[in-house]
Amino acid sequence: MNEKKNIHKFFPQPIFQYQIEGYEEHNENLEEYIYSLYESDKTGVKKSNVNGWHSKPFNLREKDKPPFKFFKSIQMYVADTFKEYGWRYTPDKVNLTSMWAIINKKNNFNLEHTHPNNYLSAAYYVKAPENCGSFIISNPNIISKERVTLSDRNTEFNQNVAHIKPRAGDLLLFPAYLPHSVGMNKSDEDRIVISFNIDILR
Running DSSP on this structure, what letter comes out for residue 93? Predict the structure, then answer.
């Protein structure tokens, strides 16, 4: 093939993955905070969780608590995501709309869902043992699932589902409209994640 070839990659679905600096101290404090919430309210709320525990939204007015301190410490990663998107980053316009925790014990998982009315969503891994369930992303372009051909290999052009194996200290930031789910926890340890949403004020 002698002719020149260009591949134009339009409309990608990005997931920004960061390993948080100093995550060990954050995770120790967050784990203690989350388990204290669990002990005081073992019912939690029902969302995408199947048998797992989903906390009520954190009280973000408690500025001396680990969740607020954690969010303040990760502003550089949020700013970097804005930069990669080409969005204007104005700190007082970046609005943390909600934050919560999920504890998945053995055989717990989360159904596919999105986070409407936000620009970005996030998952931060406080505890992620081996085989605790991957972060699963689905192609939001429904039309691509109408006809699927046989493939010789997985590429960014033919995949409709992708998996990210979480590690403690990982922060994932992604578009809030992106359908995602959580695989089944097959370990004997808890999988603890904090999720939050970000809107941009006008």
Answer: G
The torsion angles phi and psi of 104, rounded to 5 degrees, stand at -105, 120
The structure tokens 């939050």 sit at: 196
Segments in the chain forming alpha helices (H): 23-40, 66-73, 75-85
DSSP one-letter string for 154-190 = --TTT-SEEEE---TTEEEEEETTS-EEE----SSS-
- Residue (of 202, 119, 166) closest to 18 by Cα position: 166
Cβ atoms of residues 140 and 178 within 8 Å: yes
Whole-prediction pTM value? 0.95
What are the pLDDT digits (tens) for 94-140? 999 999 999 999 999 999 999 999 999 999 999 999 999 999 999 99
> Who contacts 89 (Cβ-Cβ below 8 Å, separation ≥6)?
79, 82, 83
Residue 47: which H helix or E strand, with range? none
